[in-house]
Write a structure and sequence with these properties.
The protein is an alpha/beta fold and 1291 residues long. It is built from 31 helices and 58 strands. It has an eight-stranded mixed sheet, sandwiched between helices. α27 crosses α30.
Length: 1291
């Protein structure tokens, strides 16, 4: 043992032996061309040595940091030793960065006294000074040591796959974590770390035979850092937790001052080789450019791609599920991937690609596909026909662009045309698939999104649909279907560039293309053919007396080569030039140099339409089997994108007269180039050019000319330049040199925020894992799928059970359908509606803005336009009028109805409106609505509450009712800009119930709101003001004008709405003295009780339009400085959300007749509520009401009234109350469902009637009998009396 220790201590390396003093150290690092990553407390440089001469992004990055403590001099010597040429054999596979010491202050002291130097010149232990991310300690650069800041900056700049920390205070290999909350806490990667450390120790047994194995790992020589020392704030933990870097501490010596040796060198080499263990590969976009910061998860291990899209995920040999995610892309999942090698390279993962075509679609299927794509992407596509073929088939074109239906000045027009020869079919399938690629990747892939936004892309899959129907698969001899139905080759049917006449009668298809070229301002085009593999460019023919196969050079030959190469050099086979028994240098050719074509379409485009077109031959077989289409798509996907991008290579802008008006049809000339192009109707132009030096001028006739401009065009650059035409020669005579500078905002950066591993788990035994049961919630930012480290996120379940999220995965027991809410200081509240069966739920957190500024009117309109483009399925803008000064009064509507072409009758969407800026200088509401609209647009589909709100509510954002007033308003000025430009207070300009008002005429802004409101079926509304802090409700006025409570019939409901807003605001609900001594109980007030006014908007909404509107005063200062605007938004956005949620407070449903037909204008009234509301034309109704029990009557002319008892609960967005289905019967109508009851009752009545009748009859008979009996008795009595009298007389 003593011998081994002696070997370790005295095994001297020649290079390191020369470093005995601080001066030796400086000389050594200088000889190694060291640079600095920062400065120490003592103002000494912290050196780094980059071993690779050329940095390569496709290799993993390895950081080796020695001597973090300071007095471990031997660790520094080891770094200097291996920095020479000892690791040269690793450099072809790894980028290696070495930091000899992170505590240069301590090292300098230790060279003279090893007992000193464990701390920097601030007497701080650098090795324990990093933020403790395990406890969510916030990274605060201002309170950290400069050495720590330098290290963090070092790791921020380079995405390292591995960190090796070399120390010399014992032997052994340690891995994170070094800090724990109890004795058994580990990392999710514990098993993998343990295996790597175990393998290294087994191979380098000097670590266990040294006699100085570190305490805590004596038995094995490796273990978790916390096994040795509970060290908080270590470099190792910080780098592991923040960057997910594979991190090891190599402790290699029994003495802090011992030289390096061969055994240590071999250990370092073997450790570096683990930097690429596991799975590696590359994530690319459809154009094969790498995608940075895509998340790659292999099992439990997560890493992110570097700037070029490369990734390395360290895992052991096993079977895994691999998930790759980026932004809004659909995640890619590879199941049951078996790794049989310690290092497995995956093929490139293409994000955003679409399924390759499976068949050659006939005309009917192609037509259906185009209609389906147009229906699926209505915001960015437009389908039209330029005419019909001979047999009457439509010549369809589908446009992809953000303004697809019309030309927008400055947006470039581009086209692809396929299937001109009916039997050359590959281009047809490629273009149909290319449309799918563009549409499905818009808003996802940055490059495709930018191309769609800056280009109007016209795609015609088939110019010869008749020929296609006649062609058949595999035909290489007869060329059946090549020509159109009239037997004419369309690519020989255009007017010749030399004679301007056609050699054959012009066909309907040709006429349609010529008319199309005249109707659009095309800049660049390509025509897809088959039968060869080459990019062909003008001219296609030469003068008749020219020798055969002459190179027919056109004036823009340089550009056409540039454009053709953009396609050919991105095509894996075309670029070789050796295909189809042909040879073409670099895969391109001049048309006539190959073979002569007179009347071709590409020459006609260039000569007569100013559209630069090339012809692409994309396959040797004209009509291949469908099974080969996938290979064709793989070859042509990238070239199609690259050639499309060429439309932006050159200089473009506008041609204007000196007074600023545009100059249409002005010519743009390149010096020494006879080809001129013309500006469009709007004065916009685009001159395509290859890289180089040019002189340009614009002119209109001989009377108006611009100056000549000289400029250098870099490669793949679009220079924007506007020409000014002058009428005086002195103004255009002097040339101008134009120097192009790349605008800084052209550069797009994508940063990786802080993150921590997926979970911290309990390690009971060496190879055991204890997974939590329940629903697993995965938390991440919505924009980059990464956990917001350092953020305290509180989770509540059904408003009571509370947990704290400490990592990006949290397991929660869900025992019933639940509402789970995630709250934090820096993010919008996130809501998820979760069922017991949900086992994995993704939670996307949307960051609150970090700063706010005021939008000008045009900037606000731009935001609305961008949201319409960003969220085409739910966003729409529309105008309701203009201000006095002509500013557009624009509304943004968020609604799920736009995702369907036809509105579903079962869709009970009510409309609400949010109005700001009625007083131009009261601006908090204006900016709050703009920012809230942005958030709700982005949160749709991520946040369950926002999604359900937009799915069931049409939300109309109208931030600026008085844009003219806003334009003249002044910071913290309480008066300027309040009224409109006519000096009219718009909140005193509405018709009033008391017939009183200031007497000025109705203003355009007021009239626009009234027309807008009466043309919609709004149920609730909010008007945002400033100057106080209170929620006000009707009525605003009193008959006498006195300030007193003016109660509306719906007072209870209004109080409920106002309190809901105030309670959601952090301070409004307190009702304390807020502004100028105002005090409001519960933060609410009846309008007239505060102060009485006439002509207010909220009273008009309620009485005239039956809209429940409240007014919110959002702050004491009407036009605050921007610094306080952010806090105002933070305070009000939860309250605005609460108000939107109250749109569903009440009851709703539809009213139909007995046949199910809707009944409009049904009055819905209740003695317990105020004003009546009425059903819409579709029979649907909404009635906002506070919680309670109501007796509601539904009545309409010609129908029987119907009474219904309704119980209104507090709205529950997870389980919305079902609609009421009310059926009214026509007067005199009996409900078929009640007819049986009527018949039963009739039978009962009949039986009762018969019984009664029988009783009556019996009674009559009995009475009659008794009457006759009495009569008989009376008769007998009379006769008896007469007999007696007779006897008396006889006597």
């Amino acid at each position: 043992m003593l011998i081994l220790i002696s070997v370790l201590i005295f095994q001297v390396n020649r290079i390191a032996a020369s470093v005995e003093t601080y001066e030796d150290y400086l000389a050594k690092v200088e000889s190694l061309n060291a640079t600095s990553i920062g400065i120490s407390v003592g103002n000494l440089p912290l050196h780094q040595i980059v071993l690779n001469d050329v940095y390569n992004n496709n290799k993993p990055n390895v950081a080796i940091i020695c001597n973090v403590v300071g007095n471990e001099v031997s660790a520094t010597k080891i770094c200097l030793d291996i920095s020479s040429d000892k690791l040269s054999q690793l450099l072809p596979k790894y980028n290696i960065f070495i930091v000899p010491t992170l505590n240069i202050d301590g090292l300098k002291k230790a060279f003279t006294d090893l007992n000193k130097g464990t701390k920097n010149d601030n007497m701080v232990d650098v090795s324990h000074s990093f933020p403790n991310l395990r406890n969510n300690q916030v990274v605060d650069e201002g309170n950290m040591q400069p050495e720590v800041n330098a290290a963090i900056s070092f790791f921020d700049k380079v995405k390292f796959q591995q960190l090796l920390v070399v120390g010399s205070s014992g032997t052994g290999i340690l891995y994170p974590l070094f800090y724990r909350d109890d004795d058994h806490e580990g990392t999710i990667s514990n098993k993998m770390y343990r295996k790597i450390a175990k393998d290294l120790v087994a191979k380098h047994d000097f670590l266990t035979r040294s006699g100085c194995v570190m305490s805590g790992v004596e038995d094995k020589g490796y273990g978790q850092g916390a096994s040795v020392e509970l060290a908080e704030g270590t470099l190792e933990d910080y780098v592991y937790l923040r960057y997910n870097t594979l991190t090891f501490s190599l402790h290699v010596s029994c003495s802090v001052d011992v030289e390096s040796g061969d055994e240590v060198l071999e250990l370092v080499k073997d450790a570096v080789r683990y930097a690429d263990i596991g799975v590696n590969g590359r994530v690319v976009a459809p154009d094969n450019k790498g995608i940075a910061n895509a998340m790659v998860q292999v099992g439990d291990e997560v890493r992110f791609t570097n700037d070029e899209g490369y990734f390395w995920v360290p895992v052991t040999v096993s079977t895994y599920e691999i998930t790759i995610q980026k932004g809004n892309y659909d995640p890619l999942l590879m199941s049951n991937v078996r790794l049989t090698s310690p290092r497995t390279e995956l093929p490139d993962v293409v994000f955003g690609d679409v399924s390759p075509p499976q068949e050659h679609e006939n005309y009917e299927k192609m037509e259906a596909t185009l209609h389906a794509l147009n229906k699926q992407y209505p915001a960015i596509t437009y389908l039209y026909s330029i005419g019909k073929s001979v047999e009457g088939r439509e010549l369809y074109v589908l446009v992809v662009g953000t303004n697809p239906a019309t030309h927008v000045p400055g947006i470039l027009e581009f086209k692809y045309v396929g299937n001109m020869h009916g039997n050359e079919v590959v281009g047809r399938s490629m273009l149909l698939t290319f449309i799918k690629l563009l549409t499905s990747n818009y808003g996802l892939d940055p490059r495709i999104t930018k191309l769609v936004q800056s280009t109007r892309i016209h795609i015609m899959p088939s110019l010869n649909p008749d020929g296609f129907e006649a062609a058949h698969e595999g035909d290489q001899l007869t060329n059946k279907g090549r020509v159109n139905h009239n037997g004419v080759d369309l690519n020989r049917n255009f007017p010749s560039r030399l004679s301007n006449t056609s050699t054959t009668p012009q066909q309907p298809e040709t006429d349609a293309v010529i008319a199309w070229l005249k109707s659009e301002q095309f800049v660049l085009s390509a025509n897809l053919h088959g039968g060869a593999l080459v990019a062909n460019y003008p001219y296609d023919d030469a003068k008749p007396d020219s020798p055969p196969n002459l190179y027919a050079e056109c004036p823009d030959d340089k550009f056409f080569k540039h454009a053709a190469l953009a396609y050919a050099q991105n095509h894996p086979r075309m670029k070789t030039g050796e295909n189809c028994n042909d040879h073409f240098s670099d895969g391109v050719t001049n048309g006539n140099n190959w073979y002569s074509v007179t009347g071709g379409m590409q020459d006609y485009n260039y000569v007569f339409a100013d559209c630069f077109e090339i012809t692409l031959e994309i396959g040797c077989d004209k009509y291949p089997a469908p099974a080969r289409l996938a290979d064709f798509w793989g070859e042509n996907r990238v070239p199609l994108i690259e050639y499309l991008a060429v439309v932006h290579h050159g200089i473009g802008g506008f041609v204007r007269f000196s007074n600023g008006t545009v100059a249409a049809r002005a010519t743009v000339t390149v010096r020494n180039n006879e080809k001129v192009i013309k500006s469009g109707k709007s004065g916009d132009y685009m001159r395509l050019l290859a890289p180089g030096q040019y002189d340009l001028r614009a002119q209109l006739g001989e009377d108006f000319k611009s100056k000549w401009i000289s400029f250098n065009l870099p490669n793949e650059t679009h220079i924007k330049y506007d020409f000014t035409l002058f009428s005086n020669e002195s103004d255009w005579k002097e040339p101008e040199t134009f120097v192009y500078e790349h605008p800084e905002d052209d550069e797009e950066t994508d940063t990786v925020p802080l993150r921590i591993p997926e979970k911290i788990v309990i390690i009971d035994e060496e190879d055991s894992e204890n997974e939590e049961d329940g629903t697993l919630f995965h938390l991440s930012r919505f924009d980059n799928d990464q956990f917001p480290i350092g953020e305290a996120i509180t989770i509540t379940v059904n408003g009571k059970d509370t947990k704290r999220a400490e990592s990006d995965e949290v397991a929660i027991q869900i025992t019933e359908p639940s509402t789970v809410v995630f709250t934090s200081a820096s993010y919008y509240t996130a809501t998820k509606y979760v069922d017991v069966t949900d086992k994995f739920v993704k939670v996307k957190l949307h960051p609150l803005p970090t700063s706010l500024g005021y939008h000008s009117h045009s900037e606000m309109l731009d935001v609305f336009t961008s949201l319409f483009k960003k969220c085409p399925k739910i966003a729409k803008t529309y105008d309701i009028g203009k201000s006095v000064k002509g500013k557009i009064l624009r509304v943004l509507k968020l609604s799920s109805e736009f995702s369907n072409n036809e509105r579903n009758n079962d869709r009970f969407n009510q409309e609400i409106k949010l109005v700001g800026g009625i007083h131009g200088n009261e601006v908090i509401g204006r900016e709050s609505l703009i920012n809230l609209a942005v958030y709700m647009c982005e949160a749709y589909g991520n946040d369950d509450f926002v999604t359900r709100v937009i799915d069931t509510t049409d939300i109309n954002f109208y931030p600026s009712m008085n844009p003219d007033g806003f334009e003249i308003a002044v910071y913290e000025d309480a008066f300027t800009g309040r009224e409109n430009i006519n000096n009219v207070d718009l909140n005193r300009n509405f018709p009033d119930q008391f017939g009183k008002g200031p007497g000025y005429p109705t203003q355009p802004e007021t009239e626009a709101v009234m027309n807008w409101t009466l043309s919609h079926w709004f149920t609730t509304s909010i008007s945002l003001h400033g100057g106080s802090l209170v929620a006000c409700y009707p009525f605003d006025g009193t008959k006498s004008g006195a300030n007193s409570y003016s109660k509306s019939p719906d007072d209870a409901t209004f109080i409920y709405l106002a309190k809901s807003y105030a309670r959601a605001h952090p301070t409004m609900w307190k009702g304390e003295l807020q502004c100028d001594g105002d005090k409001f109980t519960d933060g609410i007030s009846n309008g007239a009780a505060w102060y009485s006014l006439y002509g207010g908007m909220q009273d008009w909404n309620y009485l005239k339009a039956r809209v429940m509107e409240i007014t919110i005063e959002m702050g004491c200062t009407k036009y605050p400085k921007e610094l306080s605007l952010l806090q105002s938004y933070f305070d009000h956005y939860p309250a605005l959300i609460a108000h939107i949620a109250n749109a569903k407070q009440g009851f709703y449903g539809n009213v139909t007749d007995s046949t199910g037909a809707p009944i409009s204008n049904v009055k819905i009234s209740s003695p317990d509520l105020g004003i009546d509301v009425f059903s819409r034309p579709d029979g649907q109704f909404w009635r906002v009401a506070s919680p309670g029990n109501y007796t509601v009557t539904f009545s309409a002319k010609g129908f029987k009234s119907h009474e219904h008892h309704v119980q209104v609960a507090t709205v529950n967005w997870r389980d919305l109350a079902p609609p009421l289905n009310i059926k009214l019967l026509y007067v005199g109508e009996v409900d078929v469902n009640e007819r049986g009851h009527v018949i039963k009752n009739a039978k009962r009545y009949m039986i009762v009637g018969l019984i009664c009748l029988a009783i009556i009859i019996v009674t009559v008979i009995v009475a009659s009998y008794r009457s006759r009996k009495r009569q008989q008795l009376r008769t007998n009595d009379v006769e008896a009396k007469e007999l007696i009298n007779s006897d008396t007389d006889d006597d």
